[in-house]
Amino acid sequence: MALKELFDLHGRIALITGGSRGLGLQIAEGLGEYGATVVLTARKQNELDEAKAHLEGLGVRAYVYASDVSDFASIEPLIQKIHDEVGPIDILVNNAGATWGAPTVEHPAEAWAKVMNVNVNGLFLITQAVLKHCMVPRGKGRIINIASVAGLQGNDPRMAATLAYNTSKGAVVNFTRALAAEFAAQGITVNSICPGYFPTKMTKGTLAYGEKQILEHTPMKRLGTDADLKGLALLLASDASAYMTGQNIAVDGGITSV
User: Fold this and answer.
1) What pLDDT, on a 0 to 100 scale, did the predictor assign at position 174?
2) Alpha-carbon Rg for the chain in angstroms
3) How many distinct structural domains can be found in the chain?
4) Which CATH number belongs to the domain containing residue 93 in this structure?
């Protein structure tokens, strides 16, 4: 097979949660450019509509469904609806996420639950439904979890404390390993991307508080750009990564190397 054919995603359907903006939309652009039909979910219909128009302007076939990953009862019906209306999902990008900054002794219990429900529990239930309805019956699939460097290390004491977020992303890292081992013999690969600091709506508060410290600690001395995740996402979604599974790959300008 020619190398360019290994990366070809024509005929494949990619579901990207939290795909209406930020890193999710960037990944949708990349997968769509290589031929995937992209399906975006997010909570706000207006943002989904804007993302759909943006992607279609790039020549990408896109569908959108308003959905909240923390509404657990809605998840399996959503996956079944996408299966029936668009087709079976070949690529799942678990990108939806939540964060909360607070000193641990002051961290509200409801905020802890919110972060875990989106970043861990909702991710599990979406993955379970996609496996059951789309991937296991067909003996193939690509699962890409968006973890974080926050799941690979603790926080610089100069930064705001984000214990729930760090804990949830650490769970995603080992979720990736365990799920990959379970489904490796079934034609389904599971890997994660661990972004460093990218300017998004979610990181706005963190960057306002500590961008100077972050850049001082980043060997490349810059934040991530809107092009820095696309290549890796394409690799993990395509046949080019057929022998890769259970990997947690940092895209962080070198933060985790020091």
Assistant:
1) 98
2) 18
3) 1
4) 3.40.50.720
DSSP string, 14-53: EEEETTTSHHHHHHHHHHHHTT-EEEEEES-HHHHHHHHH
Q: Is residue 156 predicted with pLDDT exceeding 90?
A: no
pLDDT in tens, 50-103: 999 999 999 999 999 999 999 999 999 999 999 999 999 999 999 999 999 999
- 165 classed as catalytic: yes
Residue ranges making up the domain that contains 14: 3-250
Is residue 93, in this structure, part of any structural domain at all?
Answer: yes
Alpha-carbon gap, residue 97 to 20, rounded angstroms: 12
Residue with tokens 């394409």: 234
In a domain, residue 255? The reply is no
Q: Which among 148, 153, 145, 162 is positioned nearest to 257, based on CA atoms? A: 153
Is residue 257 domain-resident? Answer: no
Of 34, 165, 197, 209, the active-site residue reads: 165
pLDDT tens, residue by residue, 10-37: 999 999 999 999 999 999 999 999 999 9
